[in-house]
Amino acid sequence: MAGSFPKISIVTPSYNQGQYLEDTILSVISQGYPNLEYIIIDGGSTDESVDIIKKYESHLSYWVSEPDAGLYFALQKGFEKSTGEIMAWINSDDMYHKKSLFVVAEVFEKFPHIRWVMGSNTFYDETGHPFVYEEDPGQQQWSKLRMYLNQGKYIQQESVFWKRDLWQDSGAHLNTSYNLAADFELWMRFFRNDQLYTLSYILGGFRLRRENQKSLTQKSGYIQELHAILHKEHQRDRIPLVRYRILLWLSKLIPSKKWKRRITSTLLKLPGKITYDRIQGMAFSKR
């Protein structure tokens, strides 16, 4: 049975997140995906994390618990152990939605030109209840230009999956010189080689916590690294951002919402979106 599904490699970096780790593990292994390679890299946790990992080690392709230099070092170690055609990571307090790995496999099979996808942004509260933020329908479509213009803010890492050949074309590494935004730096290198396609389907969710969460306590540091990465990449590309800002401002004057969105999508060079159609099932929408 496994031969009919591409191998998906998932890495979970873990350190003293025993309160949430079991939920994360179960969200991966309860998918029932028949060709899963699941790897956990624990940084030498001193809480109940290792006991939780051992509880599920029969479902793991590899795991280790030893001191390391942090999140991105752990991820690099995990990806070097991985062999799957499709790759992703899920942090030790976040979760995948039901059947999300099957959705990912179908997307890559049905649209072979696609090498990088992101599901619709979703979140979990501290207790694990899922929710979404209300936002503009096109807010989650991405292009490199849109990253430069800081529109749409962030790519949701928990919902990102990519093909191994894109990883290899982009250097096959996380830049560990960035303590907080190495994920963003990886996305910028991915953009050098391919487009990011978004889905109307939900794949993974980010858990929002009130305490001890880097995205909250170190947000200003993340933004600082993000801007440094954008500046470095822009020095490489030399895209005339002022011209695009003016054109986007002028597009706001268009009274028709439909045409305003079409023109904005064209200016930002946004790729199409993968949506659900009652007749076709999974379908590719140009806008």
What descriptors fit this protein?
alpha/beta; 4-stranded mixed beta sheet; Spore Coat Polysaccharide Biosynthesis Protein SpsA, Chain A; globular; 287 residues; 11 helices
- Average pLDDT across residues? 88
* Count of extended strands: 13
Number of individual domains: 1
Task: Examine the coordinates and then state which fold CATH places here, giving the name of the CATH topology.
Answer: Spore Coat Polysaccharide Biosynthesis Protein SpsA, Chain A
Structural class: alpha/beta
Secondary-structure element order, N to C: EHEHEHEEHEEEHEHHEEHHHHEE
Strands in their spatial order, largest beta sheet:
3-2-1-4-9-6-10-12-13
Give me the CATH superfamily: Spore Coat Polysaccharide Biosynthesis Protein SpsA, Chain A
Summarize the structure.
By secondary structure, the chain is α/β, with parallel strands linked by helices. The chain contains eleven helices and 13 strands. The protein has one domain (2-285): Spore Coat Polysaccharide Biosynthesis Protein SpsA, Chain A.
Please describe what this structure looks like:
There is one protein chain. The chain has one domain: Alpha-Beta Complex (Spore Coat Polysaccharide Biosynthesis Protein SpsA, Chain A). Helix content is 38%, strand content 18%. The protein is built from 11 helices and 13 strands. It has helices at residues 18-29, 49-55, 71-81, 100-110, 144-148, 164-169, 182-193, 214-217, 219-237, 241-251, 257-268; strands spanning 8-14, 36-42, 62-65, 86-89, 95-96, 116-118, 122-124, 130-131, 160-163, 197-199, 204-207, 273-277, 281-285. It has a 9-stranded mixed β-sheet, sandwiched between helices. Strands 5-11-7-8 form a 4-stranded mixed β-sheet. Strand 1, helix 1 and strand 2 form a beta-alpha-beta unit. Helix 1 (18-29) runs parallel beside helix 2 and helix 10 packs antiparallel against helix 11. The chain starts with 7 loop residues before the first strand and ends with a strand. 38% of the residues are buried.
